């Protein structure tokens, strides 16, 4: 079969088109494009079906696993696909690794090194017990997330745009430095011993619960890289769609009860609003996929992220 590859403006992208055999998949087409245009490796390509000019319809994206014929109903004489360059890509593991590595290294710098001298504090710095526990808690959290990235999560997308590395690192690294600066500050006033114990104790329980939620999510997918979605079940997932985000938010709350800084609470508010938006989208997607029609299961009634608020 002959495939014409055009840009979104309708210009021919691959001169003369591509000749593929009739059983070719979308992945074969992507490889063929890559052979002709070395810069555009498969994960950088987005291929869609053409839409009528002026149409408000969303173009249908081609799934790399499917056969090309499935998209063209046997009308394989004149196959046209639209090519879009997604820009340089990195693997999801690389993205997550770099965003978590920053806070893991930046936070201890404020604890161990005399950085406050550069901000004009000359006196001896007395380290409070809560500051030491906060350091352990913080490092455990980011170490756990790196381990989960490599050994637990089964991502559906292989790659993410390189620009997300800069955006996400800015978010995590800046907040890491901002919170570390205030929690380790020479003028920091510790909370009571009881409050510290309640905060860290509650936070640690939530971190363990968060790990368990990630294991339950992992078990929804087979190791062969099938990136489909299932109804999460078990533990807190029986009550709330994004139990992993709920436990993430509460573990940060525990950290803040124990350390009590404005910087820490600002982070909780920002992180909660980000995760709430994602949770609403994930909840909608699961309800759409599991609508109870044509033999599909119906998504059970559940809170989205923060019962009893949402
Ligand atoms: N502090 C913050 O600002 C902040 C923000 C976001 C996340 N986090 C933390 O980072 C963790 C990971 O974040 P995330 O957004 O990557 O989590 P996520 O998408 O909800 O889930 C983690 C993994 O489980 C998969 N998964 C989710 N729902 C599934 C379903 N119904 N069926 C099958 N697989 C499913 C995801 O697949 P896909 O690859 O298809 O998504 C992903 O690989 C969070 O749980 C949270 O602890 C922190």
UniProtKB/TrEMBL annotation:
Transmembrane portions of the chain: 94-113, 170-188, 200-217, 262-280
Subcellular location(s) of the protein: Membrane
Biological process annotations from GO: very long-chain fatty acid biosynthetic process
Keywords: Lipid biosynthesis, Lipid metabolism, Membrane, Oxidoreductase, Transmembrane, Transmembrane helix
Claim: Oxidoreductase is one of the keywords in the record: yes
Cellular-component GO terms for this entry: membrane
Domain 3-oxo-5-alpha-steroid 4-dehydrogenase C-terminal: 159-309
GO molecular function, one term: oxidoreductase activity, acting on the CH-CH group of donors
Top-level taxon: Eukaryota
Membrane topology: Multi-pass membrane protein
Family the UniProt entry places it in: Belongs to the steroid 5-alpha reductase family.
Protein name as catalogued: 3-oxo-5-alpha-steroid 4-dehydrogenase C-terminal domain-containing protein
Taxonomic classification: Eukaryota, Viridiplantae, Streptophyta, Embryophyta, Tracheophyta
């Amino acid at each position: 079969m002959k495939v014409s590859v055009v840009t979104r403006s309708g210009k021919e992208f691959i001169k003369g088109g591509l000749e593929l055999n009739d059983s070719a998949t979308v992945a074969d087409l992507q490889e063929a494009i890559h052979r002709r245009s070395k810069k555009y490796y498969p994960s950088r390509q987005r291929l869609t079906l053409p839409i009528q000019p002026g149409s408000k319809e969303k173009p249908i994206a081609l799934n790399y696993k499917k056969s090309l014929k499935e998209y063209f109903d046997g009308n394989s004489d004149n196959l046209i696909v639209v090519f879009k360059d997604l820009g340089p890509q990195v693997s999801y593991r690389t993205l997550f690794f770099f965003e978590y590595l920053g806070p893991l290294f930046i936070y201890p710098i404020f604890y161990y090194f005399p950085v406050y001298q550069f901000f004009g504090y000359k006196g001896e710095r007395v380290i409070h017990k809560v500051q030491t526990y906060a350091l352990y808690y913080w490092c455990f959290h980011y170490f756990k997330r790196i381990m989960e990235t490599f050994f637990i999560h089964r991502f559906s997308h292989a790659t993410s745009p390189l620009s997300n590395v800069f955006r996400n690192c800015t978010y995590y690294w800046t907040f890491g430095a901002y919170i570390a600066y205030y929690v380790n500050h020479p003028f920091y006033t510790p909370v009571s011993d009881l409050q510290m114990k309640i905060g860290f104790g509650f936070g640690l329980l939530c971190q363990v619960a968060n790990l368990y939620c990630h294991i339950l999510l992992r078990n929804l997918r087979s190791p062969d890289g099938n990136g489909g979605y299932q109804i999460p079940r078990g533990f807190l997932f029986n009550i709330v769609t994004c139990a992993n985000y709920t436990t993430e938010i509460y573990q940060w709350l525990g950290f803040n009860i124990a350390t009590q800084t404005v910087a820490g609470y600002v982070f909780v508010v920002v992180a909660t609003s980000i995760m709430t938006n994602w949770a609403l989208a994930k909840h909608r997607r699961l309800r759409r996929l599991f609508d109870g029609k044509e033999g599909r299961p119906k998504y059970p009634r559940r809170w989205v992220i923060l019962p009893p608020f949402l």
